[in-house]
Amino acid sequence: MLSPGTLSILLLFGLPIVAVISWVYVKQLEITSQSGDDDRMRDLEQTISSLAKMLDDVKQERDSLRRRIQNLETIVTSESWDDLKARRVDQDTTGDLANSNASSTEKRTASSDTEVPDSAGGELGTDSDRAARLADRLRGSS
């Protein structure tokens, strides 16, 4: 096999060569892993920025929906809405009893187009006109 002199020369010169080759290999692995980390970091940054944009869009939509709900609550809880509903119920119970031979479709049409005084201006208008004016007032105040 190998003589002790040959073995000692191989170990003496081979060990530093193996150490240098190992060091180069480790450095190459570090560089490769760092470039992979950069790609992953860019992907993460893009994902974070898209999520932040999506979050802003959701916040804007939530605020818009919150304003719409507040407007609807204002309409439903306003005195005009309560008066309108009360008048419609009164008209349905008194006026429709006299017209009991009319069809249910005619009753609905008559009650929805009943002219009632407008509390803001004192003028007459149909329920749909009053609802349109109320909606215009709310749009103007938002």
In short:
This protein is mainly alpha-helical and 142 residues long. It is 83% helix and 4% strand.
Descriptive labels:
142 residues, mainly alpha, two-stranded antiparallel ribbon, 2 strands, coiled coil, membrane
Instruction: Tell me the β content.
Output: under 5%
The overall strand count is 2
The percent of residues in helical segments reads over 70%
Report the C-alpha radius of gyration, rounded: 41 Å
- Report the order of strands and helices: HHHEEH
H/I helix tally: 4
Mean pLDDT: 75
Q: Could you tell me how far the N terminus lies from the C terminus, measured between alpha carbons in angstroms?
A: 98 Å
Q: What characteristic shape results from the CA principal axes?
A: rod-shaped
| Uncertain runs | 100-122
Strand order of the largest sheet: 1-2
Major sheet size, sense and barrel closure: 2 strands, antiparallel
Count of discrete domains: 2
Structural class: mainly alpha
Region (Disordered): 87-142
Coiled coil: 41-75
Biased composition (Polar residues): 92-104
Protein name: Phage shock protein B
